[in-house]
Amino acid sequence: MKHFLRRCIFYARNYEGGMTVKKLLAFGLSLLLLLSLVGCGATKSGATGATSTATGEKKAIKIGIVQIVEHPALDAARQGFLETLKENGYEEGKNLTVDYQNAQGDQSVLQSIAQKFSSAKLDLVLAIATPSAQAMASASKDIPILITAVTDPVEAKLVNSMDKPGKNVTGTTDMNPLKEQFALMKQLVPSVKKVGVIYNAGEVNSQVQVAMAKKVAADLGLTIVEATVTTSADVLQASQSLVGKVDTIYVPTDNMVVSAAQSVVQVANKNKIPIISGESSVVDKGALATIGINYKKLGKQTGEMALRVFKGEKPQDMPIESQKEFDTVLNKATITLLGLTVPDDVLKKATFAK
């Protein structure tokens, strides 16, 4: 400013038209005030996550991520979510702060995390899996909450409807294509009559899937044999209880069971019982096959919804989204172990486990 005023004085003294120093100084100060006001208006951001028109930089965002338990599918959803944010200019350590908390299957820890997030000044919370979403939705009615890996948000009482959530919650569902999964089971194991299902009876996500499995199985002339667990430590015993009673085992996207999937695989493969799973991480561990959700893609889809929230959209007006395309995944080693022949039409569309 000092240099600007000196320049004004110089021009005033040398300007032959006769403008006085006083008038020119007044003109200069007025011009500086105007430029200052224009500059302030150009850089002010009008909504969370909006860009500055002066610099093009994203406004700093602070989010929380709460996950019920650690297992590959849920981890992949989180990774996909953060990748989408990074691809769109939100990067940890720069303009994105992420508070990631994992309850490790402990409900009391989950409640504490939800309470912590509800009192923090967060722009958004990502809740991964049904228990996490329920805890977070109970703890806060104001913070925008995005959910993912939730099978039935309506049944879980997270939203009023799939099309009109009506609350501060929206996101993506991982509802499984159970008809296609059981059809695959029949293709790979034509002699199947009885199907064992291992699940946590206390999880809404699993209750919904088992009810659907019973209906699909009945339509195909199959019988469901249930084996329930209350902790991940029960999964081995539940698997053993099905030996000699079933022809195949179906593992839904049950967080507790999937986190201990190696126990199911150990028992099933030892006794040559094929496993059809709700998602591919269990196939990676030794299950026979799945037609299921790609959780990384689901997380990326949820990340796209987060970008819309950052721009001012309200969760209550954003419909729950689902994945339209599913992955067919087979395990070569398990096919060989079980001595099965895979139909050509299945092989053509399948990929193989890692």
From TrEMBL:
<dbReference type="InterPro" id="IPR007487">
    <property type="entry name" value="ABC_transpt-TYRBP-like"/>
</dbReference>
<protein>
    <submittedName>
        <fullName>ABC transporter substrate-binding protein</fullName>
    </submittedName>
</protein>
<dbReference type="Pfam" id="PF04392">
    <property type="entry name" value="ABC_sub_bind"/>
</dbReference>
<dbReference type="InterPro" id="IPR028082">
    <property type="entry name" value="Peripla_BP_I"/>
</dbReference>
